[in-house]
User: Which sequence fits this backbone?
């Protein structure tokens, strides 16, 4: 069974290592120590915890009503406006998401670099790579 350090778990969950450490300290996710004393999280425990926080949230944000299950909260890092279309980039934890949408939609949402936004992805084809 693969185990993850607090830092690795934080990257996978899209949070800071301090947040992951606080969750571990609060007993929200189980940890154990390796022979060198590092705290580790078993892969199965991390997977279950990631599903739990995706379904229930962390209690820090408002729940949203949507049928899209793949939500990536992050920060807008770029907005490129064309005459009709626009490109918006969002950095969500370790994930960079790029969306093409209408200029009108970008203006209606008031999207600007530095603001919080959530990219929601619904696809008919998803590829999975194993590490």
Assistant:
């Amino acid at each position: 069974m693969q185990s993850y350090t607090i830092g690795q778990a934080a990257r996978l969950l899209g949070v800071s290592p301090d947040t992951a450490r606080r969750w571990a300290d609060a007993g929200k996710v189980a940890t154990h120590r390796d022979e060198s004393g590092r705290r580790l999280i078993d892969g199965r425990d991390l997977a279950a915890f990631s599903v739990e926080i995706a379904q229930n949230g962390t209690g820090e944000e408002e729940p949203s009503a949507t049928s899209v299950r793949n939500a990536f909260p992050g920060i807008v890092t770029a907005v490129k406006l064309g005459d009709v279309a626009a490109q918006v980039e969002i950095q969500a934890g370790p994930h960079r998401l790029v969306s093409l949408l209408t200029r009108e939609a970008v203006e209606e949402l008031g999207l600007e670099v530095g603001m919080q936004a959530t990219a929601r992805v619904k696809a008919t084809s998803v590829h999975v790579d194993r590490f």
Notes: The two ends are 14 Å apart (CA to CA).
